């Protein structure tokens, strides 16, 4: 600030100068420094105010005060009056110091007055702000002038004679002024705590200027006193008589030391006052300096005393401070006898501090940080060249803290350890004793929770569930610059220990570790280890992991293994076993990260894993989960699997996978799959099987093939349960590994690929995933399409199986498979003519089947057609086995049963000529029909269809018939029989029921056989169905019709109705079924429902408009009737005339038309019998004629 250092205009002319009487109108000409505040001192902002002491070169000034004197102008202006610069202190010192005392008292009174003034006092009556600053400024000018004058006397040999009077007068005046200042303890607390201001010396508060005047005067007093000591020493040198004089005793080195202690004590009082007004945790964020000026005074005092120590061989700053800190700690008290024999200036016997150790360490940390300043006031940290340690005081404080009779709390320890960490690892040179003092405390309390009573539960230290997490916990403590707020004191101690050892190692000071390890290891006897609880063991583990991370890993690990050998796994409880298991995996992970072989740790663990798996219990399950997670962590951090990671794999895997839950199995399979994936990556760089780099991966391959592959193969064929999908992932990984590294496996790619693709018993869900993974690899696809391998047809066969047994799935695996199929030349050839993309189809399998059928039909060349036929048989080779497996267990899934029937019907419909070869009885079609439509049980009337199968047949039966009917049933007895049996067996079985009875009317509207008429316009199909049901159902034994005759007649009625009495259909029914219907009506006994149904059908037929209007239908009707007469008139004439009579009632015009033919037929029968006249025939004919209204002639 411009006001802080005043440069005055030239002095008045000589005739205007009247020493001590005239007031200067030209301003002041004394250069002075004073404290300029920047507000509260922050530990994150270490800057010094640019207008304050040190930034104005104070440390250079006290080194050579003569430069200031040279800049003084005569006269000097003090307190607004002119004084001769050479004689003012010689003759007017008492006056000047009295004026200074008066000004200081005015300032003190102004503070007291302002603190008691009512708030409504007018501003004009309040003391002026400028007056406060002016009073303080005038005092500082006198002190600066005094320092300059003394320096001038010391520098001028001709002025030495002045020393006697000067020393006497100044020492008395300085004592009086210092007595006025008294101790900081005498100031009200609010002045100490609230006198800082970011406005600096422009602050309007009297308390600000009073407090800073205290600081100014104490500093000036100390530096002037130091000058006077130098004056006294020089004076004594010149005059030996003065050595024993009374004046000499007033100014000597002891006085200076006492004043240093007084000043330090006052600064400590300020720090204690601040410390007592905040919580202990707040001290970590606060400084012991009430404002930046206090910090600056500490800094200048530190610089000043260190210079005296170096140049004049005085005590160091830490030596002075330690005397007072001993008092704070209560170790001893200083002598209360002052050189001045004045109690007001005596040192305190004790300091009122509730937490002495924490305060001392807090103060030490912030004073150590002041070593980061240069003499110019720039903060550069540890690179300042001024850093000096104070370990004796630190160790003394720690010993008093952790002594046996100490009652230190967890809250205090958390703060103390943080403070010690800052000193030991950030500011001072490496030294192990403070760390060991704390270790002596903690090793006796390893079982403690280090929890603060009343704190939230989330502040409790949480043990990681895995070895990797445990290691990461330890690492994070060492990596962060500042520990988390809720860390317990033991964790903070480990942080201190680790950072200290890291510092020692980085500076090549391993001797510290050699001294420490004996004191650490010796604390763990067998009894001590057995006495550790789970929490204690966790602390033990954290300790050794910290050591392993920071010093010699192998040495620490070996010692740790030796200690753990004292804890047999069977002698400790589950929780402690868990901790030890996590420790081992954390160690292995650390080994892998450092590139060290893990065999020595892994092999014993493998044995433990085997024992846990063979003696399965609730405890072993939890341990094995940790075991598996630990292996995964090791694999994750291992870049090449060349550190004996294979030692973790053994026979325990098979036991574990066979007996664990699905979730646990999946977790382990994921781990194994990650191992195989990393193996593939590693081996891609290793082409020479005999290379050193390949030995470890080869061993890993061997153990995986021995212990994992058999399980994968067994689960791959598991159709009873649903194995995890990771089985397919591993199958694919093993297959690809065999392809990429054929010399590393005992089973070749062909063997594995063939097993996983062509095995009859496979889990389709796994096969889909396997194929989708394997076929995505270009190398595999090139092998598949290689004609010499014959894999193409096998892959298509596997895809057909997968698609056939996949229910309502739009999974990624099926989509990937479909896209892979498109890449096959055979599929490309199928899709090209029709421009159909298999991958875009709603159901690629249906599209494929249709394309195969079209392709087969399009081939004209017999040889090519035969070759294609053989390929297609391979494609569909496994279909019948899939069908039998599903139908044989129809209760598993209605969707799957429906899928099987739909796909099979599609195949029969579009590829029937491929599926059936007349000359090969073992072809695919008979097998499909026998499994799906005509199993042996279906021929037993009592057999009931499973609801799932019945539902599927309703959807697909007509498609089966359509496809089979294309196989020329007229020339193939087997095909004709199949069709006939299908119609016969399923007409009565799939009928809509109402309760326990069948309502004939409309019962067949949803019957699948009805679709043979409604969805097909081919008469051949109609004829097949009509002939089949007529021959079977429209028959009688004597007068008893077939038991299903009524159903068959109802079916025909629904057929005609649904086709809306189509002429062609009526014509086919007349030609194919009417004769049998006539016979049913003719022979069935009166009153039988079948006869009534038959008569009703005839009535409905002859009454429809189509029949009445179509002469062809009527002629066919008459033709059938005459056929019936020719067949039965000779032997069953009564039944014939019975039917004729019925028809005469139903269609008399038609019967009239056929009556002549009937008469001729009667004559023919009579002739064949050898009689000219048969009464029975004639009687029947007569009745018919009479009924028709025709007179018999």
TrEMBL record:
The segment(s) forming the MMS22-like C-terminal domain are 812-1188
Respond yes or no to whether keyword Nucleus is given for this record. yes
Which one GO biological process term can you cite for this protein?
A: replication fork processing
**Where is it localised?**
Chromosome; Nucleus
Domain Protein MMS22-like N-terminal residues, every copy: 34-692
Question: DNA damage among the record's keywords?
Answer: yes
Q: Which InterPro entries match?
A: MMS22-like (IPR042320), MMS22L_C (IPR029424), MMS22L_N (IPR029425)
Among the entry's GO cellular component annotations, what is one?
nuclear replication fork
Question: Which Pfam family is one of this chain's hits?
Answer: MMS22L_N
Q: Which UniProt keywords apply?
A: Chromatin regulator, Chromosome, DNA damage, DNA repair, Nucleus
| Cited PANTHER family | PROTEIN MMS22-LIKE
Family stated for the protein in its record:
Belongs to the MMS22 family. MMS22L subfamily.
Query: What name does this protein carry?
Result: Protein MMS22-like
Which species is this UniProt entry from? Cryptotermes secundus
């Amino acid at each position: 600030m411009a006001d802080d250092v005043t440069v005055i205009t030239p002095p008045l002319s000589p005739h205007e100068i009247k020493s001590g009487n005239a007031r200067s109108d030209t301003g002041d000409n004394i250069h002075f420094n004073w404290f300029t505040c920047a507000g509260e001192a922050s530990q994150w902002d270490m800057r010094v105010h640019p207008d304050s002491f040190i930034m104005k070169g104070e440390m250079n000034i006290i080194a050579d005060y003569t430069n200031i004197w040279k800049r003084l102008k005569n006269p000097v202006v003090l307190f607004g009056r002119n004084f001769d610069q050479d004689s003012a202190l010689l003759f007017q010192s008492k006056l000047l110091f009295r004026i200074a005392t008066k000004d200081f008292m005015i300032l003190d009174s102004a503070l007291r007055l302002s603190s008691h003034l009512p708030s409504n006092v007018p501003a004009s009556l309040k003391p002026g702000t400028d007056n406060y600053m002016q009073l303080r400024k005038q005092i500082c000018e006198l002190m600066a002038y005094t320092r300059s004058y003394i320096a001038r006397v010391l520098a001028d040999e001709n002025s030495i004679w002045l020393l006697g009077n000067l020393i006497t007068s100044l020492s008395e005046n300085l004592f009086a002024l210092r007595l006025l200042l008294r101790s900081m303890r005498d100031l009200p607390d609010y002045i100490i705590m609230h006198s800082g201001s970011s406005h600096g010396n422009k602050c309007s508060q009297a308390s600000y200027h009073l407090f800073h005047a205290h600081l100014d005067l104490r500093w000036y007093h100390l530096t002037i006193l130091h000058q006077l000591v130098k004056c006294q020493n020089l004076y004594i040198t010149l005059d030996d008589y003065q050595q024993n004089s009374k004046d000499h005793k007033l100014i000597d080195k002891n006085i200076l030391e006492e004043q240093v202690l007084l000043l330090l004590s006052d600064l400590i009082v300020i720090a204690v006052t601040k410390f007592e007004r905040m919580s202990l945790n707040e001290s970590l964020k606060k400084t012991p300096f009430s404002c930046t000026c206090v910090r600056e005074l500490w800094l200048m005092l530190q610089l000043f005393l260190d210079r005296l120590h170096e140049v004049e061989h005085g005590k160091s700053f830490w030596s002075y401070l330690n005397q007072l800190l001993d008092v704070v700690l209560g170790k001893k008290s200083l002598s209360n006898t002052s050189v001045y024999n004045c109690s007001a200036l005596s040192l305190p016997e004790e300091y009122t501090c509730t937490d002495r150790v924490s305060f001392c360490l807090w103060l030490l940390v912030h004073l150590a940080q002041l070593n980061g300043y240069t003499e110019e006031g720039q903060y550069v940290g540890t690179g300042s060249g001024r850093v000096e340690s104070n370990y004796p005081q630190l160790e003394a404080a720690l010993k008093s803290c952790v002594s046996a009779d100490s009652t230190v709390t967890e809250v205090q320890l958390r703060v103390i350890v943080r403070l010690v960490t800052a000193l030991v690892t950030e500011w001072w040179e490496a030294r192990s004793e403070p760390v060991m003092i704390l270790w002596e405390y903690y090793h006796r309390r390893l079982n403690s929770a280090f929890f603060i009573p009343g704190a939230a539960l989330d502040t409790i230290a949480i043990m990681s569930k895995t070895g990797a997490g445990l290691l990461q916990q330890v690492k994070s403590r060492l990596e962060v610059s500042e520990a988390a707020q809720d860390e317990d004191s033991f964790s903070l101690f480990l942080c201190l220990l680790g950072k200290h050892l890291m510092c020692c190692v980085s500076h090549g000071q391993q001797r510290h570790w050699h001294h420490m390890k004996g004191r650490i290891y010796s604390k763990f006897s067998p009894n001590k280890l057995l006495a550790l609880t789970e929490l204690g063991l966790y602390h033990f583990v954290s300790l050794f992991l910290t050591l392993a991370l920071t010093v010699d890993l192998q040495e620490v690990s070996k010692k740790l293994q030796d200690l753990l050998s004292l804890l047999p796994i069977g002698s400790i409880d589950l929780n402690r076993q868990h901790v030890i298991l996590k420790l081992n995996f954390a160690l292995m992970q650390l080994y892998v990260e450092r590139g060290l072989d893990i065999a020595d740790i892994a092999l014993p663990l493998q044995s433990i894993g085997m024992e846990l798996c063979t003696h399965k219990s609730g405890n072993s399950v939890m341990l094995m989960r940790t075991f598996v997670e630990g292996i995964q962590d090791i694999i994750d951090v291992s870049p090449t699997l060349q550190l004996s990671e294979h030692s973790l794999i053994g026979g325990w895997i098979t036991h574990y996978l066979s007996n664990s839950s699905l979730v646990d199995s999946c977790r382990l399979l994921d781990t194994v799959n990650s191992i195989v994936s990393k193996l593939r990556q590693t081996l891609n760089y290793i082409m020479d099987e005999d290379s050193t780099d390949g030995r470890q991966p080869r061993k890993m391959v061997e153990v995986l093939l021995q212990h994992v592959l058999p399980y994968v193969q067994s689960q791959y064929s598991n159709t009873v349960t649903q194995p995890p999908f990771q089985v397919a992932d591993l199958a694919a990984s093993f297959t690809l590994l065999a392809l990429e590294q054929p010399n590393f496996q005992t089973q070749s790619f062909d063997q594995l690929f063939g097993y996983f693709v062509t095995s009859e018993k496979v889990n389709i869900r796994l096969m889909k995933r396997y194929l989708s993974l394997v076929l995505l690899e270009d190398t595999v696809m090139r092998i598949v399409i290689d004609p010499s391998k014959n894999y193409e047809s096998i892959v298509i066969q596997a895809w057909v199986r997968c698609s056939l047994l996949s229910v309502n799935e739009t999974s990624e695996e099926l989509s990937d498979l479909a896209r892979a199929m498109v890449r096959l030349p055979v599929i490309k050839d199928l899709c090209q003519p029709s421009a159909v993309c298999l991958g875009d189809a709603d159901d690629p399998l249906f599209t494929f089947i249709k394309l195969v059928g079209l392709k087969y039909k399009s081939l004209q060349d017999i040889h090519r057609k035969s070759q294609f036929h053989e390929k297609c048989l391979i494609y569909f080779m496994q279909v019948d086995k899939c069908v039998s497996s599903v139908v044989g267990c129809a209760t598993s899934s209605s969707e799957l049963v429906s899928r099987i029937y739909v796909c099979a019907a599609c195949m029969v419909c579009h590829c029937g000529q491929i599926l059936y070869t007349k000359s090969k009885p073992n072809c695919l079609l008979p097998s499909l029909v026998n499994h799906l439509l005509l199993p042996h049980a279906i021929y037993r009337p009592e057999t009931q269809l499973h609801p799932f199968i019945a539902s599927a047949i309703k959807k697909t039966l007509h498609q089966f018939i359509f496809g089979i009917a294309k196989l020329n049933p007229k020339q193939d007895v087997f095909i004709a029989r199949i069709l006939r049996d299908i119609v016969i067996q399923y007409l009565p079985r799939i009928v809509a029921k109402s309760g326990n009875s069948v309502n004939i009317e409309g019962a067949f509207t949803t019957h699948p056989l009805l679709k043979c008429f409604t969805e097909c316009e081919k008469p051949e199909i109609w004829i097949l169905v009509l002939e089949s049901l007529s021959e079977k159902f429209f028959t009688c034994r004597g007068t008893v019709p077939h038991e299903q005759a009524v159903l068959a007649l109802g079916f025909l009625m629904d057929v005609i109705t649904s086709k809306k009495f189509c002429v062609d259909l009526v014509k086919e029914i007349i030609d194919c079924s009417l004769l049998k219907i006539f016979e049913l009506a003719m022979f069935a006994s009166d009153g039988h429902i079948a006869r009534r149904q038959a008569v009703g059908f005839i009535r409905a037929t002859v009454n429809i408009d189509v029949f009445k209007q179509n002469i062809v239908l009527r002629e066919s009707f008459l033709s059938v009737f005459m056929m019936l007469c020719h067949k039965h008139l000779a032997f069953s004439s009564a039944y014939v005339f019975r039917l004729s009579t019925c028809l005469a009632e139903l269609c008399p015009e038609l019967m009239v038309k056929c009556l002549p033919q009937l008469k001729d037929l009667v004559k023919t029968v009579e002739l064949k019998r050898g009689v000219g006249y048969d009464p029975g025939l004639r009687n029947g004919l007569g009745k018919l004629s009479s009924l028709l209204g025709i007179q018999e002639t």
